[in-house]
Amino acid sequence: MGARGYILVKLKKPMSEDELWEQVKLFESIDDVEFAARVIGLYDFVLTIDSKTSLDTVKKKIEDQGISNKLESLKIDNVFVKHREIKDLKILDDMT
Questions:
Q1: I need a surface site. Which of 40, 45, 77, 85 has the fewest CB within 10 A?
Q2: Are 66 and 58 in contact (CB under 8 A)?
């Protein structure tokens, strides 16, 4: 069973703008990373994940790069995803 969610990444050291853009490309080249975005706050990047395995598997790939000193994962609860899908189907039924 797969997992959908987000991984928050805190870099070990500051990077130049060029290095940050290269890092986005590196994150997005990792299997299961759909999108990488630079953010402002406690973390430097947020990654959107859709994994066939688990968020921990993707976190391990990021840790292996050696550029982060903190990673936090947030898994999307499938119960709410299914609820939203069902709700959308009912809306479609009401329209016909």
A1: 40
A2: no
